Predict the 3D structure of the following.
Amino acid sequence: MSILEISGLAKVYASGTVALSDIDLTIQRGEIFALLGPNGAGKTTMIGIICGLVTPTRGTVIVDGKDFRQSYRKVRRKIGLVPQELHTDAFEKVIDTIRFSRALFGKAANPAFIEELLRDLTLWDKRDAQVQELSGGMKRRLMIAKALSHEPDILFLDEPTAGVDVELRRDMWRMVRRLRERGVTIILTTHYIEEAEEMADRVGVITGGKLILVEEKQVLMRKLGRKRLTLNLDTPLTAIPVELAEWRPELAAEGHELVYEFDARAEKTGVPSLLRRVSDLGIGFSDLNTRQSSLEDIFVELVHNGQTA
Amino acid sequence: MSDNNLRGVWAIYKFELARFRRTFWTSLVLPVLTTALYFIVFGSAIGSRMGDVGGTSYGAFIVPGLIMLSMFTESISNSSFGIYMPKWTGTIYELLSSPLSAFETVLAYVGAAATKSVIIGIIILATSTFFVEPRVDHPVLMMGMMILIAIAFCLFGFIIGIWAKNFEQLQVIPLLVVYPLTFLGGAFYSINMLPPFWQTLTLFNPVVYLISGFRWTFFGAGDVSIAVSMGALALFLAICLGVIFWMFRTGYRLKS
């Protein structure tokens, strides 16, 4: 069942910049959706429109069956937003800012919930500290706590781990999974492939304001996954022998490796014939391995094709 | 009934008043000190050489003007800061993404700033009793006008806070426009004391009508009739509300 339906969403800024062009996207309840794209692709604009920070040029957004303009109150109560930049007050106490956020979204005070939230995000010990005393990582957790303070059904995380150290990134991933277990739908933007690969159920690839692909992560990786065969040669080659030209392999590691990329799902991968030809030519190799290409390779390929198309 | 967010309004109102409380002593001491200085200079030193103005001693005559002078500047600066700071720090994202209507947002910010202005107005009035005999002919009307003027100038400040792109712009209107207009708007004199040409020119200064009206509630007499003052106040309120309505409707300097 869908919780978010975006149709025909477009944004042209006053400067004439087209940030988004006709985005259609449906998000399922309880899923983790990663919006993947380079900087300036339109990810933040899209989130901004859904959350009320940016006025769309056209298009509609339906959240849990409610139109985001007509029923903006109901819609916004369901949404929590963690923006990319660290925007915090300086002089407030941590716990006061969380209470403020909850009240701002119209929720009655709930000290037990706030305590649990702060403990979850390891901020409870800092509850009486001024926000300006917190480290960068803590401030980011504080912003997540603020976004979760009104118990939203949908959480938007805009580049949640940009400029965050490895440990905090792991914490963040754990937290996102815990939230999903509670039924929260999570939409995150990232330009780290690793992040999408690690966490998302589905991935949308956005570039130049266009959503060029939406796919289950596993399917995406299978469908577009190319494999790479690497042969470790006994004696380095200086050039590709003409007899191998039809496979279009490449030399790597200063001629010590012969690399052949192939489509793992193709009927004829070309691997057996290549190996036969290699031994016919008397090229010795000590080892071979194949590797599934990562989401990153897929992404680069997609963005590249999207731009040249 | 359920389609409002009074909790959100109350949260902002409390947050803003807490901000004022942090600077409570400076906010409190400053108007008291300023008022005392004005009374010493204008009331005692110069005032003793001035005759009565319309049957009122000069010291008492300047009380309404002094209250207005402080309230104008306090209202504009508190209200403009209130909405400018979240824009500057970036925390405005939370306000914009919250289930709060434009009216509720204005109610919260302007309500908090106006509350502070009225408190300061009352403090100045109380301070003045140390120097002169206070006389308020129409206390209910006086309070009513004080509150409405506080609201009007807080609305004006709110507009400046949304409009301003930097701290300089935040200061420029209060310092270069409002302060001179107030000084020349009859805060310290009756416009009848001016040569005829300047009297006519002064009538183009909107602040004259506000100060005159407020003074009327004290002494039952002003430079212009109380009805004209009330009309000017209503017009000022309407213009500010109109501009704010337009700002929220178009997202002017709030949304991209």
Notes: Residues 16-47+58-250 of chain B form one domain.
